[in-house]
Predict the 3D structure of the following.
Amino acid sequence: MILPFREPDQVEASIPAVAAHLAAGRLLGYPTETVYGLGSSVSLPALESLARLKGRELGKPFLLLVSGRPMAESWGLTFSASARALSDAFWPGPLTLVLPGGEGRLPDALRGREGGIAVRHTSHRGIERLVRDSGQPLTSTSANRPGGPPAPGPDKLMEYFRDEVDSGLLLVLDGGVLGNVPPSTLVDCTAAVPRMVREGAIPRAELRRAAGRLAP
């Protein structure tokens, strides 16, 4: 199934169906401020289903989309001084922070090798509202088959995953075709000194202009 997801009234109308779909452990294809993503709820069965869809081992974690720092903290994630400064400056937006915490609240399958969980407050208004209204983080990974480019729009996403859409496993939100936007910048904030993992949509120099010595 494909649901229109471009105008505010379309976003509002889709939220109950999307919430029920995710609560049943099924998967979502959706636009973000960077690329189209694939996601699920944070339950372990849903994460396993998402890993199978992507064709990869569950040990490679997915990031979480949240509606802001309060949601991340409510799930037990911890913000260092650097993480607070960076999130104040660049959230919502294409900045992903790897944060410690969440033990007992979030599955360990979401953790990377450094022990943290990657989190972003998306600036896509529709997805931000979906996450906020549901009160639940949404997992996120690029909408592509292994080794292939991410889907720029719903038509290509359908081409990649037609069987899963036809079976009802995957629900697609049609947010139009996205531009050629770099992936989010990724900063590891699990230690006292932040570490740049991936320089993406936000350059290192911009991080440092905004957060000074608290930036990587």
Observations:
- The chain has a mean pLDDT of 94.
- The two ends are 42 Å apart (CA to CA).
- The first helix runs from residue 8 to 23.
- DSSP finds eight helices and ten strands in the chain.
